[in-house]
Write a structure and sequence with these properties.
Length: 492
């Protein structure tokens, strides 16, 4: 048992995972969280009989979460109840075509045949994806590799080239699939990390394997029950959590950090783990100079933001599955507008969750609750949009959904809640309102995020979506486990 004290800034899933993993390694752990509840972007809104997942709504790779319980001799099933969903997603296209995604090959083949995509193309694509996933998983994910040096040491030159390095994600998709429908669908797996398939490296095509091999899961009662399950585990492990405790300062002593200030009081620590994103933490808590921040900004551009629209309806739309995508008629243009021009898209691809489809407890009887999430650019601080601008965009979303089959949607709204990128930034201190941390871009960072150990202070570590391997719930939980391993090795 180490007995040393670690303070974690922030209780997003990465912070919680790091706290639990460090406690399991014998550290005394305390968490300081600025908000009134734990979970960070894993968040919930309950109103008038409707329950909305304000943040994540798709659980993947549950075995990564299971490890947090296993290491304390417990079973996740005793804390969190999960079940696989069918179909995984429903995809709506502007020409009226609807296609479902299933992990069962025969069902997937039937969907492919509907639009003339040879089923063997999908099989070949998924084989290619599985190869990339296995390669990425054994090193980058599981070993917690952080930079080129780590990569070269782990993979060597030969394996390195198996990452399909000379193509972008879309080119990898297009070389296997021939119809625009399936190209759009598999391009849009990039949604898991809020990036563009035209800019992300081809090895991001590993993502469909996460869903097709390990399934797509729902958490009974809503995804916030993950946070509640982890809270129970943390209480049992004796991890102290301070809520409503924004950290305003990280103090230094020579080249090390010595503690932090929350609500005006200093708290000493041997090691600090920041779940506040890397750039905001260096900028606002350590007040590093502009040159250092600019050097980070060059590589760590934010992933996209989103408009989070929660609607309580007085009816059901039976054509919806639990997870739905309403595709842009010009997906390439959508990516270009959001990620390169950084403008609001005229015709966005829209993600819509109707959790009431498989969990009647989240809406009144006979009603749907919808969470709608189009991806939009992160905040441009030089020319910021106002809330009114974002609300105008909301009308474009409702127009598109009404056009694509949700007839009279506006007339059936009895409850509405909207969060803009401005709210997302304020809630979570996320860099420019990003929802997945750092963008995965072939030219800017080859999908590398920030390293887990500070390059300035050896006893300062980072965890979460702005750190390798990046955003998404399972990835930040993995990051928490990896950062704990890194701390234990460094602290020997
Ligand atoms: C709308 C939306 C939909 C998403 N959908 C999915 C999905 O379906 N599936 C999926 O896997 N992922 C999804 N994601 C991404 C996923 O939610 C995130 O990648 C992940 O939850 C982020 O975890 P994190 O560890 O980076 O911390 P965050 O969630 O960013 O939490 C950071 C925490 O630090 C706290 N904090 C910040 N600054 C301070 C400070 N100075 N003092 C104290 N506390 C501080 C914040 O309040 C927050 O609680 C979605 C995200 C959003 C927003």
């Amino acid at each position: 048992m180490s007995g040393k004290k670690v303070i974690v800034i922030g209780s997003g899933l990465g912070g919680l995972s790091a706290a639990i993993s460090l406690r399991q390694s014998g550290y005394e752990v305390e968490i300081f969280e600025k908000n009134a509840q734990i979970g960070g972007k894993l968040n919930v809104l309950k109103d008038r009989g409707y329950t909305f997942d304000l943040g994540p709504s798709i659980l993947t790779l549950p075995h990564i979460f299971e490890r947090l319980f296993e290491r304390s001799g417990r079973k996740m099933a005793d804390y969190i109840s999960i079940r696989p969903l069918r179909p995984h997603w429903r995809n709506f296209f502007e020409d009226g075509i609807t296609l479902d995604l299933y992990p069962e090959p025969e069902k997937m083949a039937a969907e492919a045949r509907k639009v003339g995509e040879p089923p063997e193309n999908i099989e070949r694509f998924l084989k290619y994806s599985a190869g990339l996933y296995d390669l990425t998983n054994e090193g980058y994910f599981e070993q917690g590799l952080d930079n080129w040096r780590d990569f070269a040491r782990h993979y060597g030159l030969w394996k390195f080239f198996q990452f399909d390095l000379f193509r972008n994600m879309h080119q990898g998709v297009a070389s296997h699939l021939k119809t625009p429908y399936f190209r759009d669908i598999f391009d849009f797996f990039i949604k898991y990390v809020g990036s563009s398939a035209q800019r992300a490296p081809a090895f991001m095509n590993a993502m469909p394997t996460i869903q097709f091999r390990y399934d797509l899961w729902y958490v009974d009662g809503g995804l916030y029950n993950i946070a509640l399950g982890l809270r129970r585990l943390m209480d049992e492990l004796g991890i102290k959590i301070h809520l409503n405790a924004p950290v305003s300062d990280v103090r230094r002593e020579g080249s090390r950090v010595s503690g932090l200030v929350a609500n005006g009081t200093f708290h000493a620590a041997d090691i600090i783990v920041s779940n506040m994103e890397v750039i905001p933490a260096y900028e606002q808590l350590l007040r590093e100079d502009k040159t250092f921040i600019a050097s980070l900004e060059k590589k760590l551009e934010p992933a996209c933001s989103g408009l989070i629209l929660d609607l309580g309806l007085d009816c059901k739309y039976p054509q919806l599955a639990h997870h739905n995508f309403f595709f842009s008629a010009h997906q390439r243009g959508h990516f270009h507008t959001v990620f390169q021009k950084r403008q609001m898209p005229d015709d966005p691809t829209i993600y819509l969750v109707a959790a009431s489809r498989s969990d009647p407890g989240v809406a009144p009887a006979g009603c749907d609750c919808l969470k709608i999430l189009p991806h939009i650019p992160y905040i441009d601080d030089k020319h910021p949009l106002t809330r009114e601008d974002y609300l105008k965009f909301k009308e474009r979303i409702l127009d598109k959904l009404e056009r694509m089959g949700l007839k009279d949607l506006r007339k059936h709204i009895v409850f509405e809640h909207v969060w803009t990128p401005l709210d997302i930034r304020e809630q979570y201190n996320s860099n420019k309102g990003s929802i997945y941390g750092v963008v995965s871009d072939r030219w800017k960072n080859l999908a590398f995020k920030a390293p887990k150990q500070s390059t300035l202070y050896p006893n300062l570590f980072f965890v979460g979506g702005s750190v390798n391997p990046g955003g998404g719930m399972p990835m930040v939980v993995l990051c928490g486990q990896n950062v704990a391993r890194k701390i234990v090795a460094w602290d020997k």
